[in-house]
Amino acid sequence: MLTVEKLTKVFPGGTAALKDVSFSIRQGEFMAVIGLSGSGKSTLLRCINRLINPTSGRILWDNTDVTAAKGAELRRIRRHIGMIFQQFNLVKQSSVSTNVLSGRLGYVNPWLSLCGYFPAEDRARALRALEHVGIPEKIQERADMLSGGQQQRVAIARALMQEPQLILADEPVASLDPVLAHSIMQYLEELNRKDGITILCSLHFLDLVHRYATRVIGLKAGEVVFEGLPGELTRERFKEVYGEEAEMATLGKPLD
Amino acid sequence: MDHKKPHLLIGLLALVIPGAGHILQGRKQQGVAILAGVPALIGLGLWQQTPLVFVGAAAVWLWSVWDIYRSLNEKPSGTVLPFLAGMMAVYAAAVAATDFQPAKLISGFSSIKPVLSALAKPDILAYPTQDKIGAAPVMVPCIDPLPRPDVQGSRRTVILTDSACAAVGETIRIKGVGFIPNFEGELWWRNPISALQRLTKNGRPQSFKTDEKGEFTADIKIPLAVPLNAMPAPGRTQTHQIEARQHKPYGSLQPTETLRLVVAKMGETLALAFLATVLATIFAIPIGFLAARNLMGGNKITLAVYYLTRTVLNIIRSIETLIWAIIFGVWVGLGPFAGTLALLFHSIAALGKLYSEAVESVDPRPVEAVRATGANPFQVVIFGVIPQITATFLSFTLYRWDINVRMATVIGLVCDAGIGFLVIQWIRLGSYNAMATTIIAITLVIAVLDYGSAVVRKRIIEGIPVGRGKKFSRRAMRAAGAICFVVLFIASWRAADINLDAFVRDAGNGVRLARELLTPEILDRPTELRSTDAELWTPAKSCSSKNAATTGVGPRIRLSQSCADVGDALTITGEELPPQSRVYIRWLFPDGGELRVKENCCDTDADGRVRLSTRVHPLADSKNYNGRPVRVSIQWHEAVGGLKLSPAVIKTGELALITLLMALLATTLGSLIAIPVSFLAARNIVGAGPLGSALYYATRTVFNLWRSIEPMILALIFATWVGLGPFAGILALTLNNIPNLGKLFSEAIEEIDMGQVEALTATGANRLQVIRYAVVPQLIPKFTAFILYQWDINIRMSTVIGFVGGGGIGQQWRVWVQLNQYAAAAVATWAIVAMVWIMDYASSKMRVKLV
pTM score, two decimals? Predict the structure, then answer.
């Protein structure tokens, strides 16, 4: 479904964030990406929907070359790839409903959307998406009035509006406490199991990796140093990925 | 909400009383807005007679009925359209009320062109010149016999004319002798009151060039050099003068007289600002403690002191420094001292408030800790409070010094203090190059100072010491600093022309002024001027009766005699006049002339009687009037009808509204221009490439320089351009707002959360959609807050921009003060205070709600 071939990203300052990264994801997988801060996880995820342009290498999405796509074609690819962020990235001054509806921007008539108009079916879809994540009653509130966990649910609802085949989740629970973290991860798991949405998720906690992922890749300084099933990720292998601080990670604490 | 009330009734009510329908439906906020808004708009329309305003009002009204109809079908519509209609009506009224005519920018361009071109050629350096001036008298027009001219040319450099006299429009030939050989010169004409004008030939300034002997000849057409009403009577003539002038440069470039004056006056400006800031700090520190709630909240007496101090500070603060300058000008006389007092007064109030806020925000925990060590109250203040506030106080003081320099540069526009005086003098004299030099100097000094004080303030707040050397050198630097400070202080004291004597001696002026300003003329009984008079014949032997009087009852005048010689004693008596009121006693001459018998006279007693002893005026001689008698009259104002709002209140009300609308238009225009420009000054928009950086730095630099041009000076320039009035004021404020808002806007743009932009890009939205959904929502609240803040400032500025011809309430205020109509000026003063307070309060409320 998604194949990454020899992906390399060198930032203008000369920092090599990704070096020859290659892997592929099959339909319906829940793949976790682990690694230290600065190991290239975020860059990798952002290269896949081209929020960052890779320096070299290829990304194939259902046999379409994402790296070569431009303009309208790129936007068509993006609208099938949902993304959720560590800081939720909701438009804080807008209402929850506008935030959720904005997930539809790739589909609707662009001129009407500039006037703030969305078709009735999309409005209904937004309500359903909010029901799906359990907070339909918040639809009229301003996004910054919500708690962190609720904001992340709105962000998931926004991604759902895209009818995604793939969701990129960039440390979706790093800003949340452990209980909320599990509830958000469970939503992702449900989307993965029930709706068959493929998920590529960068994570910080080993226990979350073991509990939710079906496959894991480990990045270290921009290179893939581990690829396998969560069960194969032993303490020793984990230490290879993370270095000395690994002890902390196994206890379920953040690494950085 | 109950929408099931009788439809027809609600609909009818909405049609008859705008907004009533909404209130009945329970939508109170909207209802009250419509109920207040529609009549207000209709009022604006009636005031300005503008059809578009009525259209807007009608649109809002009809919409309200339509909305009721829709809501009965459970579909209330949006409020955007009626809001836009209302705003359109307000703007239409504003355009009409403020005489907003952009076409004037083009039609008036010819009068501003010399000013603009002078800005490119400031008068800084020039060569010294060797000057030769020759002159010759010309009598205009010719009469017979021709009297001797009463002026003579110099001896060695002379002009010979072929005729001693000529009429306007005739041509005479002149010959110059003894001038600098082979060099050009200018021809000038000096009229009898010594006003110079350049002679012209075929519409161009006339010049001459001498031959190798230093001689030249030229034909001169006699110009119309005096106004028609000052032309000599038939049979008389006036002496004019032709001047030929040569200025030959030699040697090296020298600073011009203009530059010397500018430097001297700039020194005075900085001295005024320095002195006012230092003194204000000394006064404001104790006041700052008195106005701090956390210190004064203890018991009722201190709380009363707190409220009193706060109120007085607020009143003083809301009256602009320039207004204080004029008030103190009345007190101690216009000049640097009045300027210093004005700066000082306003600074004490402003600093007092800032200091008190700093004291109020003191962290109580360290104070508690010091108290816990067993320290006494003094020690608590010294070790617990003072360390927390020193840096803030210092930073506020520096900030105030900044503002004071700005104010000191424009205070001269209203009194002879500081560099502003040069600007206004030179613009009146038409010396545009000199004026341009001054404006450029002001702008540069302010820009440098702005930058410097921003750097120093930042260091103070971050706690970086100024000197970083060893202990000895730091001590030496401190000593040097202290000596510099004392020297500067003494120099400034001298420059500011401090005259405490005048301050005390003329305290009567101040008290009277204060009393008048505290009793505004709100109600007024309309009056009519009435008079009674009696005839007086000269000489004394022309009649026999000794007494003359108007007879009967009612107000009347009686003279001690009806015939007298010039210089005889005369007693004028008035009877049954309004008791205890001012009457005017005048000579009325048969040729229509009038003259007060005595200045500052007279007041009637409790019985309505007045008595004045004088002598018969030399002009009262009947010989001058073919034997007709002069008359003596008593005039007084008599009240007719009941109490009414005084004309001052009505005028003030109208002007206050115009001032608000001026501020509204200026803020709107400034924002509309600043919004697109601000994107060029935002780092994250223009990018880090060479072109982006160039654009960024260029825009920022222009903003910073432009911000340093005082709005008062802009108003002066625009008053020359488009004429006096609100339009000039609006243009000045707009131009001043663009860089101020632009800077704030661009900083807001730089603070955009890029995560939100990223998230929407990831959904596959296109660029416009990303801007609409991720950028605009972030900017709207901040931009609105800045615009409201600017509106607030604009209202304050538009109260004084009228002093230099910018229209609005300030222009009328100054006229009233100049005419000594303090009771009327008092009305305007309180209106300014009220306006500033209300806007302050409203805009701070709205800002809190927005952000």
Answer: 0.76
